[in-house]
Write a structure and sequence with these properties.
Elements (H helix, E strand, L loop, with lengths): L14 E4 L3 H14 L3 E5 L3 H11 L3 E2 L3 H7 L5 E4 L6 H7 L5 E5 L6 H13 L3 E5 L6 H11 L6 E9 L17 H17 L4 E7 L11 E7 L5 E7 L10 E8 L2 E6 L13 E6 L8 E3 L5 H18 L9 H20 L7
Parallel strand pairs: 1-2, 1-4, 2-3, 4-5, 5-6, 7-10
Antiparallel strand pairs: 7-11, 8-9, 9-10, 11-12, 12-13, 13-14
């Protein structure tokens, strides 16, 4: 059955947003408005940005400080934190015991940051998620349903390919970081691969600068997952393809013993305007020997952001519910990122004489 449905909370909790940047305006708030969820308040260190979004989205409370926000937030609030990763620990330390928290990815800038974030969440007994929403894009959800049903047989190949031109200037804080592409972009794809295949035994990676984007630590990466099985899984990203749209690629492809699926993620092409998504599948046993195009409702923005908040809110309602965006799963993703940078730093094998 081809579906992109996901579980929704029965009794949605009020949301307080910390941060009023572009991702909040373009994805978080439209997602919550589409779902009809209550947005109680918003705060940003730049008060004018918070006020502008409050006016645009009909948010009643605009807080002047974190102290005011915590005092004014309802006891069952979900704190939606959308700030640079370097600011997460300071904000988490201020939140009340047993808070409900959705953090924008990544979970800190290093594995040590992630360890401290995990410690805070556990010590303060948070119900916490990290917003790795790309695995909850409607077409990715549809692929997961098909694969879990055994429709394409045993999954043995997963390829994620991005050959795009990304406007990094939209996020000026990225230009001063020693780690960039794998930490802030390919981290999504690492998280997605483990969503389908679990944690690998080993990982090989190399990340590269681009000669026209030398202000950034890296903008291109190749990451290979090793499962000690006949499984091929890898990420191949190039954000510097500044040669028009004709040969830009943005897709995830799965191959199984009985078929294959390809999901084109159109938002990455001609970003931020984006192109249309596309979902195709090939079933060897149906006898047609043709790719079939499926009609998948929704898109990355805002539907995947609705799905991440729904995943957290369902876990708040029922701690036994599946929680694919949980802080613990996100910590495993940060372990992968650390392995990728260690592999990158160790260098390749010298060519023998």
């Amino acid at each position: 059955m081809l579906t992109s449905d996901f579980a929704m909370p029965t009794h949605p909790k009020p949301i307080v947003v910390i941060g009023a940047g572009g991702i909040v305006e373009e994805a978080h708030l439209p997602a919550y408005r589409k779902a009809g969820w209550p947005i109680h308040g918003i705060y940003d260190v730049q008060a004018d940005k918070a006020q502008r979004l409050a006016t645009a989205f009909g948010i009643t409370h605009v807080y002047a400080s974190m102290t005011e926000l915590i005092a004014g937030a309802p006891s069952d609030t979900v704190f939606d934190i959308a700030v640079p990763a370097s600011k997460l620990i300071g904000i988490l330390n201020q939140l009340p015991q047993r808070a409900n928290v959705l953090m924008q990815k990544p979970m800190g800038e290093t594995l040590n940051d992630a360890k401290e974030i995990r410690r805070i969440c556990e010590a303060k007994q948070f119900t916490a998620s990290v917003n790795f929403q790309m695995k909850l894009i409607p077409s990715i959800i549809a692929a997961k349903h098909l694969i879990d049903q055994g429709t394409i047989g045993e999954l043995h190949d997963m390829e994620i390919r991005m050959n795009i031109h990304h406007p990094w200037e939209l996020w000026d804080f990225l230009f001063d970081l020693p780690r960039m592409e794998m930490l802030y972009h390919s981290i999504h794809y690492m998280d997605m691969i483990t969503h389908f295949l679990g944690m690998p035994k080993r990982l090989y990676a190399k990340t590269f600068q681009h000669p026209k984007q030398m202000q950034l630590a890296s903008t291109r990466s190749i990451i290979v997952f090793d499962y000690d099985k006949p499984i091929r899984a890898f990420v191949n990203t190039n954000h510097g393809h500044d040669f028009g749209l004709k040969h830009q690629d943005s897709f995830v492809k799965w191959e199984g013993t009985k078929g294959a699926i390809k999901a084109t993620l159109g938002k990455n092409i001609n970003f931020p305007k984006g192109e249309a998504d596309r979902f195709e599948y090939f079933l060897s046993e149906n006898g047609t020997n043709q790719w079939v195009e499926g009609n998948i409702r929704g898109a990355w923005y805002p539907d995947a952001f609705m799905a991440t908040m729904a995943d957290l809110q369902c876990a708040i309602e029922n701690p036994a519910a599946p929680h694919v965006t949980s802080m613990k799963r996100a910590y495993d993703t940060m372990r992968l990122v650390e392995a990728a940078y260690l592999s990158n730093d160790s260098g390749g094998t010298t060519i023998p004489d």
